[in-house]
Design goal:
mainly alpha; globular; Rna Polymerase Sigma Factor, Chain: A
Length: 193
């Protein structure tokens, strides 16, 4: 129920957010530093969460988050509003994360508190609901968690998540629905209805 409410809220906000993000990217392309600061405030949680899911190290993920926004600043003039502006930003984060991994940088297991911190900045849920979501997300497998977070927290469409993670759409849908079932069972097991 909680995830359904979160998904519905994100859907409604998604259209408005897309327009705002496209406007911000246009302003960034024109050299507006305040627009970059606003984009950072809106997208940092999603960028950090994606980077963390790849590099599995909080410090590296923070560095990659900063690098992503530097790259956005440099590449904004090349942005074309054909798809999702958040998807474009997350693709930059993903590519930088993969480059970091290819460089042979640190790989390790993601600690529970680091994964739990990903939805911590989501503005549309209360503190109590956020704690429930964090605990429930901890029960998911890594790829399920990544897909659920990208769809529910960032508002990306399933096809955008599939393109970003380079997975077949059917796999993303399957893992997303399996993850939701696990979340539902976990939340209902905690007495939440």
């Amino acid at each position: 129920m909680l995830m359904l409410m979160l998904a519905q809220t994100m859907e409604q906000e998604g259209v408005r957010d897309r327009q705002v993000l496209e406007m911000l990217l246009g302003e960034i392309a024109a050299g507006n530093q305040e627009a970059l600061a606003q984009l950072y405030r809106r997208a940092r949680t999603a960028v950090y969460g994606l980077a963390l899911s790849y590099v599995k190290n909080a410090q590296d993920a923070q560095d990659l988050t900063q690098d992503t926004f530097v790259r956005v600043w440099d590449a904004a003039p090349q942005y074309r509003p054909q798809g999702s502006p958040m998807g474009w930003v997350l693709t930059i984060a993903r590519n930088l994360s993969l480059m970091k991994l290819r460089e042979g940088q640190r790989k390790g297991e993601l600690e529970e508190e680091q994964w739990n911190a990903i939805p911590a900045q989501a503005p549309s849920i209360s503190h109590e609901d956020r704690l429930l979501v964090q605990n429930a997300l901890a029960a998911l497998e890594e790829q399920e968690r990544r897909i659920v977070v990208l769809h529910a927290v960032t508002g990306l469409k399933h096809r955008e998540v599939a393109a970003l993670l380079e997975l077949p759409l059917a796999t993303v849908l399957s893992k997303y629905h399996r993850g939701l079932r696990k979340l539902k069972l976990r939340l209902e097991g905690d007495g939440i209805r």
